[in-house]
Amino acid sequence: MEKLARKKIQQLTPYQSARRIGGTGDIWLNANESPFDNEYVLDCRRLNRYAECQPKQLIDAYASYAQVKPEQVLTTRGADEGIELLIRAYCEPGQDSILYCPPTYGMYAISAETIGVEQKTVALKPDWQLDLASIEASLETVKLVFVCNPNNPTGSLVNKEDLVALLEMTKDRAIVVIDEAYIDFCMDMSSVELLAQYSNLAILRTMSKAFALAGLRCGYTLANQEVINVLLKVIAPYPVPIPVSDIAVSALGEAGLAKMQSQVLELNANRAYLKAGLDMLEGITVFDGWGNFLLIQFPDGDALFKSTWDTGIILRNSPLENCVRISVGSRDECEKVLGYIRNYYS
Q1: Long-range contacts of 14-20 (CB under 8 A, 24+ apart)
Q2: Boundary (domain end) residue, out of 240, 255, 270
């Protein structure tokens, strides 16, 4: 049966998510999940009916939170579906291409590969900023430029003026897709206000991180109405299950937003605590991070990763040399991982 699959799929290595990689332990800091397990009440009386494609109450709630118009919002099964929809809607397989800037999130490449769309890469500069000159030189056939901001796995932020320059250079040529999966941890750095100026901007958001709803699979694409209308042509008929919509609306209510913002403050404080503790260790480089994780370069990153893994502290290995990504957990989890690393290097 495998031989019947498309050749591209036969050769494809799937995205290695935290759950696919697995592991066993008590401290899980590998998937940038929230440590908060918030409770919700489900109403199961309407499950015999199909959900709306785009539930109005949910769209209105997220539009209010993002400070955009409802017609600028599309809700999806996580931000990952938004990536796939944009590629399917705007790229002709075998003809168009996407561009992204590694090191960055792996699903841009995987989604393009599964659809049969070419991928172009322009590496981030040593300071993890965009190489605008090289991007401009690579734009032929490019329909979508993906920029993760804050970036995963580096945690870095792209200079706002560089994002504006990118939008200017791609006008009438390509859509710039800014992946803001982690923007709730530094909301003042969002590019959402640029939607009013640039019709070629799309923004990806998710409730998996700051809202502590990774298991809900609820994401959003923010764009101008013309782009949203194109995506509505290719989205599945019933992408948002009724329980998902109900929980998301609750999380976006006044009490839910207050809880999320309080938890974000706590996680940002835990990130600062973890960074300060690791900064004190000789030979370790802790990169500035703006999401709910930190990227750390160790003298022997692979060995440190294996040692923590074997003791039940599950972190995320990085393709960057000797680098390990650590999600920001509870204060207790941060204390334990920091204590383990201190003992490891003592």
Answers
A1: 14/110, 15/106, 15/107, 15/110, 16/106, 18/314, 18/316
A2: 255
